[in-house]
Structure formats: structure tokens, C-alpha cells
């Protein structure tokens, strides 16, 4: 099978080399319209979804095992003809960056292209699949009455800058061929369900990469065009533009660019699990790894996935994004044959946590694409599609955690059964990390702990902490933008239950003052 892959890569590279000349001419000024046959459009859509599914499966075993370190060349990756089916069965939660996409595709099919944001939010919140970070924080917010865009805003969501929407924005780009601003509009509505600022920009940028990949295979042009959607004053823009700069400086050494990224852009500010830690689920750093894979992969399907994976951190989602973009760029027919048996084995199976298959999704995305083409100045005939290409417009500037700087972490690992939680700190905010635990070994229960939160003696709110993992509160409590001062937080368990305990993992304290480097002098 390895020989088949090598042959496929040669063919893949040959096709790329023979198409570059025309693309470079287009990259100066793209045509006003993209003319494409319906069959080719279908093939590109299939290629995008297939690339994403192959990529996430390829990188799956490495996810967050390599934090702040690259995966060394000597470490082999697993792949065989039944690997995706095997992963469907054994690790369905791996596919969160696809089943979230499919949720949104389903809502569009049921309610139309103008479906209200609340419909997407409620469908996402009420599904029974596993979620993490910004997605889970947003799910809890929505189920407790905080609707979008407030559900994704950093004041209400400590994970607002995390990768969540970046890994589920593929659908917006894939159904908007050449229509970058149309995709951005979907991202504005849906991305703010769970993210804000850099977290939202991750989805805008990824969807834009897909839209431009429909009409150009010049990767420099595709990436620079997508970056035009992001405000230049944002940290997201600065991170990606630095990758582009370093690629030019070190064109044959992706590891040097990786080192530059780590030195300049790996500092975490928002996600409370990432500050004071090597763990980094921030959208902009992981988007940078996608771009590293695309630029240094040199349009080779395997190499692109492999480099994106070996950058580490969220190393299943990043190759999924990179491979999905190449899949759209060259279509399913040009994905090397080595990867196809595993994909084709599952195309008629219901996707994990979903009632639709990949083959269903191909058809739905094609259907939605044709409608968007017609709504945006294009034309659909019996055999072909004429798409009016949109010049990428910059979305508005948003910045999370302004006036907030990580000041202290207390790694406590305390378990409470009959005592209150009392915290003294000096700063302007804090996040209390932890969860409800069963003392009887229960795996399922509808028990919800009620926690009364007092700050400086004043009751602020009552927090609900479900034991159920699906609807859990991701962090016990957080509060930002307090007055910079000494504060006292008391968390009182209002409905104690001897079968459960409160596990407090750690506390992250914030200050309005950026911390100076420690100097013992």
C-alpha cells in the first residue's frame, strides 16, 4: 500500500506543477467569475470533507500529547485501510471537528440558509455528543439562558480564544465557493455562539481558505487572500503574517519556523488550562500550524498533513483543516489512492453522533452551494456553475481579555464534601477550575450541585454544576474585570449530597498589570 501512496503522490505533484502557471496569472487579479462544471464542484466538495476526515483520523493518536514540542521524525504514524472505521467505533469523540460542522449543515437543510442563530445554538447545545473548552462553556451558557453572542463572549466564556470554531467552520467555506464574504457572514452568526476575538477569527480565516481554494491553487495567494479577512491590529493577523514571513526566510526548514512561532506566539492568556502550562489550544497558534503545514507541505497531501501534525498541540484538528483545504483545491479524484480505501469504507455509515453519512453531507453541501451561488450574483445551468468571486473584506476588530493578565496559578487538587470553598487573592479576576465527582463510582446521574458565590461578602450568583458530563459546567466559576484589589471569594454548596464532592483542581488569578519577569535581585 505504501507503494500506491508514493505513486499517488507523484501523480498529485504532476497535476499541481502543470496547473501552477495559470494560477499565478490569476493570483495577480482573479477573474470576476469562476466557471466550473457541476461534477467538478461536487468532486471538490467531496475532497474537502474527505480531506478533513482523513486528516483528523491521521493525527488523532497524537492529539495534545506533544505540547510545546514538535513530533520527531522517527515517530511513525498509524494508517491502514480500515483505520477510519476502527476509529469511528473506538473513539467517536475524536471527530468533534466534523460532527459540529454536520450539526450546522443539518440546521441549514431543515431551516434554510437564513436560519436564525438561536436555532444553530440550541441544536448544538442539546445534542448528546461530547464537547470541550469554548464549545462546552457555550453549551452550558445556552442551556442556562445565556444566548449568542453573549454565550461566546470572553466575559462569559473563559475559552473564547480557543480553537473550537476554527475546527468547525469548514462547512461555511465549503458551501461558499469563491464567496469569501458570504462565508464570513455565516461565521459571524455561528462563530459567536462559542467564540470571540481570535477564537472567532480562526473560523473566519479557515472558511476563507476554503473559499479561495476553489479558484486558486497558488498557496501563497490563497493564504494571503484569506488573511485579508482578519484585522491587521489583531494578534491572529500578526501570528499568521509572521509565519508567512518566516517561510520566506526559511523556505526549506519548517522546524525553524516552528521555533520562531514558539518563541514569539506561544504565550497563552485566556484558556485557564493553558496559562502557566505548556498546553495551548489557542486558535491563532494552531491556525499557524495549519499554515506551516500548507506552506511547507508544498501541495503534497501526505506531507501537508504530516507537517501540520508534527507541529504538535491540537495535532488532529490542524491536519484535518490543512487536508480539507487541499481536498477542495484539487478535488477528491486527486487525493492519492493510498488514503481512499479507509475513507470509502465509511462514506455510507452514519457519522459518529449523527443521523447522516458523509455521502449525505456531500450532497447537502452541493445543494446549499448552488443556492448561495444564485443568491450572490452567480448562475446555475444544467451542467455548469458560474460563481461571482468575492474580493475578501476585513471583518471587525475584536480583542478578548483586554485589561487581563495572568498573575498566579495555585495548583490545589482539593476535594470538598462538607466545607465551603474560601479563596483570597489580589487582582482583577479569577477562574476556579474543577468539577463534581461521584463518591460512589456513579457514571450517570442527574444531580446538579447548587453553589452560592460571594465576592467580598456580597452574593453574586448561584452557579449550577451538573454531574452529567454532557451538560457539565466546564469551570466551577470565573469572574473578570473586578477592581484591582485584594478580594475574598466564598463558594457555599447549597444542596450538599453525601454521594458527591466538589473537586477543585486549581485557581488562575488575573491582574490588570502585566507581570514583570522574575528577578531575584
Q: How would you describe this structure to a colleague?
A:
It is a single chain. The protein has two domains: 2-388, ADP-ribosylation/Crystallin J1 (ADP-ribosylglycohydrolase fold, Orthogonal Bundle); 405-511, Sandwich (Jelly Rolls), CATH 2.60.120. The chain has helices at residues 2-17, 20-28, 38-59, 83-90, 96-111, 117-126, 133-143, 170-174, 180-191, 198-213, 219-227, 235-249, 254-265, 283-297, 301-310, 317-330, 340-344, 358-375, and strands at residues 33-37, 379-380, 384-388, 405-416, 421-427, 429-438, 448-455, 458-466, 477-479, 485-493, 500-511. Strand 2 and strand 3 form a beta hairpin. The strands form three sheets. It has a four-stranded antiparallel beta sheet with strand order 4-11-6-9, with no helix packed on it. Strands 5-10-7-8 form a four-stranded antiparallel beta sheet, with no helix packed on it. A three-stranded antiparallel beta sheet has the order 1-3-2. The protein is an alpha+beta fold and 521 residues long. The model is unreliable at 1-28 (pLDDT under 50). It is globular and about 70 Å long.
Amino acid at each position: 500500500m505504501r507503494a500506491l501512496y508514493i505513486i499517488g503522490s507523484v501523480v498529485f505533484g504532476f497535476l499541481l506543477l502543470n496547473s501552477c502557471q495559470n494560477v499565478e496569472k490569476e493570483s495577480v487579479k482573479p477573474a470576476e467569475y469562476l466557471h466550473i462544471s457541476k461534477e467538478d464542484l461536487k468532486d471538490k466538495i467531496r475532497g474537502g470533507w474527505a480531506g478533513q476526515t482523513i486528516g483528523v483520523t491521521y493525527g488523532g493518536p497524537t492529539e495534545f500529547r506533544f505540547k510545546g514540542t514538535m513530533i520527531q521524525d522517527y515517530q511513525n504514524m498509524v494508517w491502514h485501510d480500515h483505520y477510519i472505521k476502527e476509529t469511528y467505533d473506538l473513539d467517536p469523540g475524536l471527530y468533534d471537528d466534523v460532527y459540529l460542522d454536520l450539526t450546522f449543515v443539518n440546521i441549514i437543510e431543515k431551516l434554510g440558509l437564513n436560519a436564525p442563530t438561536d436555532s444553530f445554538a440550541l441544536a448544538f447545545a442539546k445534542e448528546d455528543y461530547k464537547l470541550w473548552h469554548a464549545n462546552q462553556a457555550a453549551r452550558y451558557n445556552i442551556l442556562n439562558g445565556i444566548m449568542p453572542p453573549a454565550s461566546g463572549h470572553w466575559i462569559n466564556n473563559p475559552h473564547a480564544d480557543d480553537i473550537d470554531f476554527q475546527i468547525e467552520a469548514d462547512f461555511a467555506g465549503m458551501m461558499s465557493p469563491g464567496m469569501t464574504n458570504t462565508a464570513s457572514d455565516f461565521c459571524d452568526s455561528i462563530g459567536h455562539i462559542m467564540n470571540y476575538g481570535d477564537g472567532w477569527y480562526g473560523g473566519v480565516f479557515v472558511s476563507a481558505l476554503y473559499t479561495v481554494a476553489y479558484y486558486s491553487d497558488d498557496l501563497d495567494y490563497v493564504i494571503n487572500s484569506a488573511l485579508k479577512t482578519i484585522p491587521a491590529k489583531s494578534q491572529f493577523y500578526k501570528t499568521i503574517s509572521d509565519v508567512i514571513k518566516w517561510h520566506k526566510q526559511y523556505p526549506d526548514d519548517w522546524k525553524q519556523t516552528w521555533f520562531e512561532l514558539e518563541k514569539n506566539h506561544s504565550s497563552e492568556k485566556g484558556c485557564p488550562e493553558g496559562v502557566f502550562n505548556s498546553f495551548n489550544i489557542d486558535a491563532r497558534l494552531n491556525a499557524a500550524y495549519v499554515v506551516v503545514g500548507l506552506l511547507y507541505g508544498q501541495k503534497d497531501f501526505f506531507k501537508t498533513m504530516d507537517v501540520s501534525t508534527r507541529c504538535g498541540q491540537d495535532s488532529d484538528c490542524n491536519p484535518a483543516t490543512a487536508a480539507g483545504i487541499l481536498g477542495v483545491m484539487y478535488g477528491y479524484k486527486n487525493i492519492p489512492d493510498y488514503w481512499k480505501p479507509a475513507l470509502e469504507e465509511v462514506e455510507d455509515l452514519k457519522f459518529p453522533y449523527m443521523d447522516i453519512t458523509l455521502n449525505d453531507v456531500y450532497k447537502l453541501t452541493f445543494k446549499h452551494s448552488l443556492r448561495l451561488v444564485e443568491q450572490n450574483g452567480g448562475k446555475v445551468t444544467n451542467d455548469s456553475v458560474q460563481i461571482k468571486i468575492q474580493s475578501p473584506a476585513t471583518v471587525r476588530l475584536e480583542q478578548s481579555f483586554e485589561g487581563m493578565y495572568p498573575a498566579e496559578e495555585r495548583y490545589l487538587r482539593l476535594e470538598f464534601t462538607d466545607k465551603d470553598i474560601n479563596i483570597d487573592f489580589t487582582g482583577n479576576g479569577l477562574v476556579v477550575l474543577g468539577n463534581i465527582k461521584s463518591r460512589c463510582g456513579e457514571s450517570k446521574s442527574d444531580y446538579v450541585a447548587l453553589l452560592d458565590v460571594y465576592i467580598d461578602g456580597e452574593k453574586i450568583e448561584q452557579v449550577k454544576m451538573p454531574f452529567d458530563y454532557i451538560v457539565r459546567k466546564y469551570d466551577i466559576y470565573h469572574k473578570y474585570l473586578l477592581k484591582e484589589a485584594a478580594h475574598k471569594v466564598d463558594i457555599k454548596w447549597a444542596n450538599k449530597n453525601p454521594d458527591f464532592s466538589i473537586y477543585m483542581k486549581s485557581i488562575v488569578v488575573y491582574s490588570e498589570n502585566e507581570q514583570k519577569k522574575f528577578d531575584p535581585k
